[in-house]
What we know:
By secondary structure, this protein is mainly beta. A hairpin with a 4-residue loop joins β6 (57-66) and β7. The longest helix is centred in the last third of the chain and has 16 residues, at 603-618.
Amino acid sequence: MDLIYADKNRAELGEIMDYEMDLAYGSEENDFELTVGLNLSCCQPGYMVYFRDTEYGGIIDSICPDTKEDTVTYKGRTWHGILEHKTIEPDAGYDYLYVSGDAHEVLRFLIKRFGLEGLFSVKDTVSGISIVQYRFPRYVCGYTGIQKMLLLHDAKLVMSYADRHVTLSVIHNYDYSQDEEWTADQFDFSIQKNYRPVNHLVCLGGGDLKERAVIHLFTDGYGRIQPYKMVENPFKNEQYILDKRNQVLFGADEVAEIYDYSNAEKVENYVLLQEQPGDWENNYWKYYCINTQEGAGGYKQLEYEEELVYTGMHTKPPDWEANYESYYEYNYTDQTYKKVTAVSRDIYTPLITGGVITQLWITDYKNYYEKNGEEYSPAKSVTKYIYTQLLEKPADWETNYGSYYYYYSDGTGDDYKTIDGVNVDNYIVQPRMPTDWGGKFGNYFKKVAIYRYWYKEASYSETKDKKVLVIERPVYSDGNKMDTYDNKKGYRRFWKKTVLRYEYQKISGEKPPQWKENKYYTNVPYKVAPRFIPGYYSCTSYEAAPTYVDGKFYKKDTVSGAPEFKLEVIGRPMPKYFSAASIKKVPAFAPKTFFEKFEDKYIGLTEAGIGKLEEIYAKSEEISADLSPEQEYDINDIVGAKEHITGTSLFQPVTKKIIKIKDRVQTIEYKIGD
């Protein structure tokens, strides 16, 4: 293999002849070390080293000369490491980053987002692998995020350096564990499958001694978490199961572990009171109401209410004209009091400006009125819409495509219509056998690999003494095997096969097949954003002043003052106006108005405990293997093995490759699974 070095502008400078190189990429490291003799030093920081048309290469970040060993070691990031040191994160104001489309389209979007268009390019074809509204974790390293996304879609990332660029493409991963021509006997392996991981997690939360929050989480033999709460959505401590009633594994089968999470937060829940509590009169202060104070929000404890005691006035008080608003008027019909208000008279004057629209009208039109019969009402605004053509895909396209529009004309008029989603199939692998498997197995699916079969085809040219090979070329057939032959005219011999694509086929037959874990699928279709096309529209609206017409609108002037003080005559003179004095009283109970506060100190503790159990079970299966040296595997390819004596089997993806080159001899080591 020819190791090339190039300058910062990626112009090739020459070949490194005598070297040792260690290169690793995948789930960790993603870097390389290149050692040459000190007298052969030829690189500077920012230079690149690579093997043409492979994914082996990277950028030099540091130089380490060693005069004792008479060597210099160049260290840096591989192509994978350059991607790994970028961050996939949500746009400002959004919780997550979503992507959809063909895998190559998604890669181009991410490379542009990383600012790496100068070094990386994406193959200008359609991969045939559709990414359907994939949601990245809030913050994840670039290479890790891409590989996890592709593994979820049974795919892998292919890199190749040539012509000053790292070309990226996506193809289907290869499941060697399902290949009928590949068996576990081809290599040595070891499996660690913990059939009894932790099944009793003692979760310790906040508090001291006997006041400390403690809850037990149990699983059954299959890792399923047993009920730990009495209701679907608990809101108080008493609704959690704090004893061991749901323990299912005992004795030697019980594996317990203590999970100390003293920082678990407790939550205060406010529950609406449907009926009056028995202690309302004496303990009303224990209850709450919504805090309606502007800008406050939340809840506040109840306090004494102020009740007004009214005294009727038979003669006009001395301060009536100046302070009439501090008195009350009594309505004898509905027996209610209300504050005395000014007696006012509205005067409406038509606006006449000679048809000139002033800035005052545009900004203050709501302060003017229109006449409707004998009534006057405020002038109504006119809603106007602005449609702006989109040239680039909005950041929220995947989740809010329904907020955008496309232009439509039926030949007689124009319109902008909202964009509808696209129905897509979503196949979810079955970790447990469906309840209706026996009778409804035909509603489920199996994943079938469609292969591309490769052959070497040659023809002979016969002379008097011997056959002469004219040409040999590779040919392939998609989905079906081709006939092979070897005769005097030439030959066609089977070479290899690669995954062309995966298809999901409905299960057929008169009887259900034997169900196996992680083999069959349920289709749960849902709607996703359509592919973005420049030319869609966003819409904004605003309220504008109505069209001004002289004499149509009116200006209102109001004259107000104290009403005339008088008595109400109901058979005899009665007080109409009252003074009021305030006294304090217990607030009157009203259903669905007040709240009782409960503490829930287990919600955060149980969520963290369940996460801990999931982490434990994820690490309960491990496989290590000396993979076949005759076959090179890629990150995300699936390998697996079954040990026939014990019946133990595991299937895991390749997650790391370590390549060592010494004296131009290459060796590769692999890491399988997490």
